[in-house]
């Protein structure tokens, strides 16, 4: 019974992480390329590659060091890059 609960929690965590990655990737796709430059961040193309590779690793190689690196990349985008892009593209 404990292992079933643990597997359910891990499954929910994996789905939530996948949705978070998809949201970050979609957000990066929808932001204008000039905003990345104006916010002094990596280019849009670089972030699309980073987030796309993180998504691929999540789907193809769940678990392990590469997945941890992907999680860090997603968190950097959502906690550092996205707020800077929002500030740059905010309508006044």
Topology, element by element:
Blueprint: H1 2-30, H2 33-38, H3 44-60, H4 65-89
Helix pairs in contact: 1-3, 1-4, 3-4
Please explain how this structure is put together.
The chain is an all-alpha fold. The chain has one domain (2-89). Helix content is 84%, strand content 0%. The chain is built from 4 helices and no strands. Helix 1 packs antiparallel against helix 3 (44-60), helix 1 runs parallel beside helix 4 and helix 3 (44-60) runs antiparallel to helix 4.
Radius of gyration: 15 Å
The main β sheet shows up as: none
The structure class reads: mainly alpha
Strands, total number: 0
Question: What's the total helix number?
Answer: 4
Average pLDDT confidence is 91
User: Could you say how many structural domains there are in total?
Assistant: 1
- What is the distance, rounded to the nearest whole angstrom, between the alpha carbons of the first and last residues? 55 Å
The residue fraction in helices comes out at over 70%
Q: Spans of 5+ residues with little confidence (pLDDT < 50)?
A: none
Order of helices and strands: HHHH
Q: Can you tell me the overall shape?
A: elongated
Portion in beta strands: under 5%
């Amino acid at each position: 019974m404990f292992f079933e609960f643990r597997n359910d929690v891990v499954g929910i965590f994996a789905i939530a992480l996948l949705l978070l990655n998809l949201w970050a990737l979609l957000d990066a796709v929808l932001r204008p390329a000039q905003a990345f430059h104006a916010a002094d961040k990596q280019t849009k193309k670089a972030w699309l590659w980073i987030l796309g590779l993180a998504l691929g690793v999540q789907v193809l190689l769940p678990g392990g060091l590469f997945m941890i690196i992907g999680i860090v990349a997603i968190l950097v985008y959502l906690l550092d890059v996205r707020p800077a892009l929002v500030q740059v593209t905010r309508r006044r």
